[in-house]
Here is the input.
Amino acid sequence: NNKEQTYIMVKPDGVQRGLVGEILSRFEKRGFKLVALKLATPSKEHLEKHYADLSDKAFFPGLIQYMLSGPVVAMVWEGLDAVKTGRVMLGATNPLASAPGTIRGDYALAVGRNICHGSDSVESANKEIGLWFPEGFAQYTLLQETMIFE
Ligand code: DAT
Ligand code: MG
Here is the structure.
C-alpha cells in the first residue's frame, strides 16, 4: 500500500500564534499516526541544510532569519499518501492562494509567514526526517488503525 511518512513543521510564527495544537489536531483527526514530535531550536546551519534547494533564491536570507526567530515544532506523520495529503492540508505556499479550509488558507496571509512546512515528495520527506530526527523514533501500532485503513 501507499502508507508514507511525511515531515511536518510548525514554523516560529505558528508557535508564537498558538497554532501548534490546532495543526496537530488536524493531522490527528484526519487519521494520520504521530510517529515523532519535538520542540526544536535549530541552528542556522541546520536550517540552511533544510532549505538547501532554495539557497540561490533572493528570499533565502530572509527565510533563514525568520526560521531562526523562535522555536519550531518538528513532527513526522504516517498514513496513506501522507506526503501529498499533508501538502493539501497545508495549502498553497502563498497563503493568498491557499483554499479556505487549509491551514494556511485559514490562518495566514503572507508567503514569508506561512505558519507551517510539509515535505513536497517522498524523497524530500526521507531526507527531512533524517535531518530533523537523526535519533530515530519508536514504532508503535495505532490501535484504531483498522478503523482508518482498509
Ligand atoms: P513550501 O513551503 O510550500 O514547500 P517552498 O519550498 O517553495 O514552499 O519555499 C519554502 C518557504 O520559503 C515557503 O514556505 C515560504 C518561503 N518562500 C517561498 N517563496 C517565497 C517568496 N516568493 N517570497 C518569500 N518567501 C518565499
Ligand atoms: Mg518546500
